Amino acid sequence: MDMDSGQTIYQQLGESAGLLSIIETFYGKVVQEPLLAPLFPEDISPVIERQHQFLTQFFGGPPLYSERHGHPMMRARHMRFPVTNERADAWLACMNAALRENDVEDELREFVIARLKGPAYHFVNTP
């Protein structure tokens, strides 16, 4: 991956279809992760849809999330869930594994995980 390619992360991840594949793989892992599964509804489809909208926007694609839901305000939206450092670690591990399984090259995968670490730990609200 050439970080100076002029492409957004969204484009480098394969735009909508590539990102959706990563997100579906990711949530397949999340629902199996004992630290994370209790935080999510049985029907994970709406969560996948919102995550696709958010990450599309977050990684430089169209502003789907804001168009449908307003300002992301992600920390506020996550306050009702007990987010711990361990859960943030588990979330990032699931995403890292999903990126690997979708053959995202190492440099891009590492960049994506670094970009997601800030928000993941910003959501921590429980010791």
Automatic annotation (TrEMBL):
Coiled-coil annotated residue ranges, if any: none
Keywords of this entry: Heme, Iron, Metal-binding, Transport
Cofactor dependency: heme
Keyword set includes Metal-binding: yes
Record bears the keyword Isomerase: no
Pfam families: Bac_globin
InterPro entries with a match to the protein in the record: GlbO/GLB3-like, Globin-like_sf, Globin/Proto, Globin_bac-like_CS, Hemoglobin_trunc
Family membership: Belongs to the truncated hemoglobin family. Group II subfamily.
Name of this chain's protein: Globin
Source organism: Saccharibacillus alkalitolerans
